[in-house]
Fold:
Amino acid sequence: MRNPRTVVVDDSRFMRGLITDLLDDGGIPVVGEAKDGQEALEVIADEQPDVVTMDLEMPRMNGIEAVERIMAENPTPVLMLSAYTDDDAEVTFEALEKGAVDFFAKPGGEVSMEVSRLGDQLIETIRTVADADLEQANRAERSATAAGAAAATTATPSAASTPSGEAFDDTRTVVIGSSTGGPNAVETVLSELPGGDCRVLIVQHMPEAFTSRFATRLDEATRAYDVQEATDGARIGAGEALVAKGGKHMEITGYRSGRIRVGLIDDDLGHSVMPAVNVTMESAAETITDPLTGVILTGMGADGADGICAIQDAGGPTIAQDEDSCVIYGMPKRAVEAGCIDTVCPLDDVAATIRELV
Structure:
């Protein structure tokens, strides 16, 4: 198991010491510390670490500015450390757009107790981030930005009719699962999907405080789909998308007259992540009778492999992002190894593949 050399950046001496102790206990060497972004640039240049943990709000130079400078001057995988607040959620997404690979949510309250409790998860995340493809992390952001600009200026055909005026018989349901590197990848795909021709369910591994803002950002990035965070009992039809709420599973509880109803589950159901892609995909395969497609994008772990197999078993075509375009080739790899993927393609071709199905 890799133990990446790490630099810890935080304006709190207490937090720097706490994170350093947690990483030391997990066998991950901390080769440097910094109290702000400016100092971080110097430490990173001297130590050449494998990964950096980066606080958001700091004096002199904040986390976003530091990430942008790091990517320009000394590209290094960065894990953002973010608090559970709406403001931090927005800033965290900005950091991801600047090239940060992933983020780890710092709980409030008794910080030392909470972070200690999540120490194993922090260590696992740092190891994953250290192995990220930085070129793809930055490329995904550029692709998402370009796709969003195109969506904002290009009219999209209505789902109600084809150019010849013939009505569509069916609307395709697309279930997308992703984790590390997923926010930009999901935005790229959703921005290029045919407007109104699909119902879209999105399961991104993300804490509760961040999924609402993620849904808002997706909604702002595309004119073709109305995107909202899932609520218990929510329904969607053609041209609409739901983002699974963090900290809960999203299952399809009903399907009638072309509209899907979802339910939220508080029980972890034995899954290590909430929301889990498997829960949504398996319930979709069981409930939806119209055309159904499963998509697995970049991310760590094995979540989604069972779900994508359920969709394939139900007769739905399945798609996985290829290794070269993934930030982390974990979830797609496990899905491919399970033998349940019909098409493997680069991120930029995922939406086109779905369009062909529609």
In short: Residues 170 and 290 are 7 Å apart (CA to CA). The two ends are 43 Å apart (CA to CA). Residues 6-131 form a domain with the Rossmann fold fold (CATH 3.40.50.2300).
